[in-house]
Structures are given as C-alpha cells and as structure tokens.
Amino acid sequence: MSVQFKILIGILFTVATIVALVIYGINEDNRMKAYQTNFAGRSIQAGAEYYESYCATCHGEKGEGIVGKGPPLNRKDLLDLKATPHLKAINWNGTAADFIRNTIAAGRPQFSKYYADENYPQHMPTWSQDYGGPLRPDQVEALVSYILNWAPGEFEPLVAIVTPTPGPAPTPIPPEEILKAVPFPVPPSDAILAEGKTVYTKNCLACHGANRDGNGPGAVGSVKPPRNFTDCTVMQGIDLIRHHDSVVNGIPANGMPAWGKKLSNEEVWKVIMYEREPCKLFTP
Ligand code: HEC
Ligand code: HEC
Question: What is the pLDDT of residues 247-256, one digit of tens each?
C-alpha cells in the first residue's frame, strides 16, 4: 500500500465518522436524549463486561492477545496516547480513542497489512449498529473507555464511572387498588363461588383435583405437581396478584396452561376465589 493510499483511507475513515455523527445529530432529540441518559449510565465497568462477553475470546482476558485469533490490544505502541507509534506507523492522524472507536465500530472487513503475517482465520467483526453490527453506540463507547483504561497514567475516562444507584423500591399496590380490579364484592357471595366452581370443574379439576388438593388425574406425569389449594401455608405465599398472573399467563414450563385467552376476566376472578376458598384468602 502506498503512503498516499493509506492517507486516503485515513481521510475516508474520518469523513465516514463525521457523516455518521452528522446523521446521528440530525436525528437528534429523543434519540439523543435516550442516548445521553444511556451514555451517562455507562461506565468502564460496563465496558469490562462487554469486553468479557464479546472480545476476550479473540483478544484475551486482559487484552494480551490470543495467537491465531486476535492481536494484543493492551500494548504500549497502541496505548501510548502521546506518541501513538502504532498510529503514526499507519498514518492515522486522529487520536487513539478515535482509532479504537472506529476499529470497534466498523470492524476490519479487510485484514490490515501490518497483521498480514498473522494469518488470522477470522476478521475483526463489525460491532456498531451504525455499521450493521450488534452493539449500540454507547456500548462501543464503554468499550473504548475500557481499553483506554489500560493506558498507563494517560487515561481520561470518556464515560464517567457511575456506580449504579438502586432505583426506588417498587411501591406496593395498596389492597384497595387490587380489589378494585375484582369485578364483584369481596369476600365473594356463595353464588359467585358456585360459578367459580363451574369454571374450575370444567377447566382446572383435571389437574388440580376434585378436592382442590392438586391430585387430579392430569397431575400424573406433570413436571411439577399442580398447586394444592388446601395447603394454606403455601397459599399464604400466593397473593391475589400472583394468583391472577399465574392463571392468566400460566406457567407453561411447569405444565400449568395459560387461561387468559380462554376465560373471560369475570371467569378468571371467580375461579380464583373458588381456589382461595379452602384457606379463606379472599382479601389481598
Ligand atoms: C473473531 C475474533 C475477534 C473478536 C471477537 C474481536 N476481535 Fe478485535 N481484532 C481481531 C483481529 C483478527 C484483528 C486484527 C485485524 C487486522 O487488522 O487485520 C482485530 C483488531 C482489533 C483492534 C485493532 C488493533 C490494532 O492493532 O490495529 C481493536 C482495537 C480491536 N480488535 C478491538 C476489539 C474489541 C473491542 C472487540 C470486542 C467488541 C473485538 N476486537 C472482538 C479479531 C477479533
Ligand atoms: C394440565 C394441568 C393443569 C391444568 C388443566 C390447570 N393447572 Fe394450574 N397448575 C398446574 C401445575 C403443574 C402447576 C404448578 C406449576 C408450578 O409449580 O410452577 C399449577 C399451578 C397453578 C397455580 C399456582 C401458581 C403459582 O403462582 O404458584 C394456580 C393459581 C393455578 N395452577 C390455577 C389454575 C386454574 C385457575 C386452572 C383452570 C382454569 C388451572 N390451574 C388448570 C397444572 C394445571
């Protein structure tokens, strides 16, 4: 490759980056806001995690490189941010951060001449969504920060290190709100319980049993035993919300079907009350 050609490639890279940034900028507002929120929350730790997941297989756990897979990244000629001998050698005029960012984002669809002797069987993949890869720009940025973080004494984090603060604990839904969802007065009347029994007999008895104790004929061979609604210790741990959720969505992996599409909202709540009758757990 001639020097001019290399310079041309360098310029093209830079132009491509600028174009990408401009396009990104035009599309701003919401996207930018979301991006910045994301961006602020990212950290070198996040970069370390992505590195472990996506890069260590070829570049080694600590960036030491793996023979036959990928070159070392934790090397002085790449990370000496003042002298950047590697970048000078390839006529890269931007910063080391730009170089690393571009490489990660676009990948290396062509092997570099300076790695020609290595015979890497696989190319450096394209990572950024901007180039059709799998990672968001903020994830690429976190990776850049993480790699630069190896540079001795020179490091300026591109992304502030943010210790994730746990969000506020979810506010428990007050019982009266839950009861508002029930389409009849609670505790239920005998008439409602009788209707619940009808729904149960038709749909649930086969597995949960005539006595509501989980011993129906359908229980045989089930991955998990169907719930025994007469076991009040267990039932106390199943509040109205969970009960409703389990009936509507089922627990398919364990053999409990989903009923949300087969039963009406009224039928669901009636059968729930019938199942809660043995332990009288009608209120939330
Ligand atoms: C399938 C193996 C493979 C994976 C996975 C991989 N790389 Fe690479 N990477 C390579 C190869 C091979 C090269 C050298 C390509 C070339 O220039 O010929 C390279 C080059 C690079 C370079 C430029 C090094 C230099 O000296 O020019 C950087 C930076 C880099 N990879 C970062 C990453 C990051 C960050 C990840 C994870 C998101 C990653 N790589 C994942 C194989 C891989
Ligand atoms: C094909 C058998 C089968 C049928 C029919 C069936 N269930 Fe179940 N059900 C199960 C199994 C198995 C479990 C246990 C799942 C587990 O432990 O993860 C279960 C568990 C449950 C639970 C407890 C969920 C929890 O969060 O612990 C509820 C409530 C329930 N079923 C309600 C119903 C209702 C209401 C019907 C009828 C509309 C019904 N089931 C019909 C097999 C069945």
Answer: 988 887 788 8
Q: Which two tokens stand for residue 170?
A: 């979810």
Does any ligand 1 atom lie closer than 6 A to the CB of residue 75?
A: no
Give the ligand 2 atom nearest the CA of 199: 38
Q: Which two tokens stand for residue 201?
A: 């007999």
The reported pLDDT for the residue numbered 234 is: 94
CATH tag, 175-276: 1.10.760.10
The two structure tokens encoding residue 252:
């398919």
Report how far residue 96's alpha carbon sits from residue 90's, in angstroms, rounded to the nearest whole number: 12
Q: What is the mean pLDDT of residues 73-96?
A: 76
Options 1.10.760, 1.10.1200, 2.60.40, 1.10.8; which CATH number does 3-148 get? 1.10.760
For ligand 2, the distance from its centroid to the CA atom of residue 257, given in whole angstroms, is: 7
Ligand 1 atom with the smallest distance to the CA of 51 is 37
- Ligand 1 near 58 CB (within 6 A): yes
Residue owning the nearest CA to atom 24 of ligand 2: 246
Q: pTM for this one?
A: 0.45
* Nearest CA residue ID for atom 42, ligand 1: 124
Numbered ranges of CATH 1.10.760.10 in the chain = 175-276
Rounded CA-CA distance 128/104 in Å is 7
